[in-house]
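Attaching the record inline, Q. Sequence:
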Amino acid sequence: MTKFSFPVRPNLLASRTGRLVAFFLLYVTEGIPLGFAATAVATQLRRSGVGPAEIGAFVGLFYLPWAFKWALGPIIDVFGWRRMGHRRGWIVLAQVMMSATLLSTVLLKLPEQMGLFTAILLVHNVFGAMQDVAIDALACNTLKKEERGLANGMMFSGAYIGQMLGGGGVLLLSGYVPFAVTFYFVTGTILAVTLVVLLLMREPPMPERDIGEGSRLKVALGEMHAFSVNAFRSFFGTRGAFAGVFFSLLPPGAMCLGLALQSSLAVELGMDDDEVGRLNVASTITSALFCVLGGFLSDRLGRRKTLFAYVTLMGLPVLYMMTVLVKHGWFLPINPVTDARWPVPQELFTALWVASIVYAAFQGLMYGTRSAIMMDVTNPAVAGTQFTAYMALANVAISYSAVWQGKVAERWGYPATMMADVVVGLVCLGLIPLLKPTRRSGAPAPVSTAQEESPPMPEGTMFLDGGAARRARFAAALLGMACLASAPAWSLFGADQSVEPILTTLSALVFVASALFLLAGGAVLRTSAPILSRVVTVVALALLVTAGRRYVWMLLNAVGLGLPEQVPAMVNDVLLLLVPPIGGVVLLVVAGRSWNELTTGHVADGNAGPGAPTST
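Structure, as predicted:
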């Protein structure tokens, strides 16, 4: 009698090709919800009469969880399921919850229940950010060194393909089925990858961790503290790393043709869902291809030179679109539901297609190069920590860009918004020359001009260069003065509707940057100045609440806990009157410290190498 046996399931993580396919598919599921929100949902909302400002706030809020995904790292590292696989278990949990939250929105009526819809999708994206952290951790533990470059290229391409499926793909599908049915398509795509993860991926077992005394939660909190200390030291340790903080917080070139503004304009020009979908698919494929090309060219021509060129070029298609809009008198947004539509010249349709495709090419070139240059200035000893934080800060830039562009478009019109977008996008050019890796004294010189931008650097060549304390004092003083200036600025210009969007964006950026500085700085000061450490932590949380106060009211309204209109207005006034000045004073106090804590120890593991400074 022949004994029957089940065939052994293949394990994608056991082969090079399998690993590339696995992480490509996983990144597809990361891109799907972003494309779905920024393109498909934004298009439907605009078609329903929702204004650019509200859509911009929706997209901006959607990106916020990605700005704080670093906080999930220690939790995912400490807690896990050994039987399913430590990181694999988190990926499955995140994808199932992403599917559940998305399906729960099917019965909501838009735009009437916009607040609740936004709140649910915010939770959905929290799980999306959680999945991203778990996938990156799994990649770091399974990818071999010689395949990481190609793997990262395929992962970025997977994210673009996911955005195409969730954005343009959904819009094309909605031409054949009701839009509500597309939610099942998006959910089914995510769950299909979940089955692949469950059935065809087996994570190598992780060794048992000695967590010592105390609960796993305590250990996770301890690792978050260590993260904050390492990140703070790494960001201020070298000139290139310090410049990288500000570079990440600034938009890398013009952004409007890559955010919801493009979808809003397409709807107003009379494009149907099929046309918007085809435009999105073509743009996304273009970006995916040029992303790989951008990284390839930067390796040969120099990262800073090529990045400078790409950021500059991103503004050209925006200026072209702006010129065509002005030529045909298309300034302020219209309501596609109630406003009468005059005939749209064919030149406007052609211009949007040309501008979008050219922009997608330049944006792809930029993204491929920007990621590489941020790796160049990252300390190898804490690469995961520092690079993840840079990417998180970049998501803050995307979030506030979407918000201010929507508000300015409603008040000043599309051409003015595009011009402002181009100007703001060029600010980061002043920092690109500073994004140069710091070399250990005595390290060999680069062999060619092209390699000067990114010379091969052995492990441990980056360390504290002696200026960390000076940079920390400068940053604290700069942020402190900005916080102190915010209160009189709101008193003088807060009521001016033409200035309010810019003031809101700038103040939110200052408050978030100040809060992040104080949170990480407080962790560094916990041993040497415990009382000050507690104070700065409380002030940091208050600054975060102040920066996100509008989102707080929106979420309260969404879950049925809305307050009378005068209460949020009064709380807003109190927050803007008290919190920024207090934050400014605390930051100036912090700026007066010596910050010897940054120079008396080595970064991360104490292996900064010979010659690392020990004092200012």
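Residues 16-47 form the longest helix (32 residues). Residues 463-603+611-616 form one domain.

More tomorrow.
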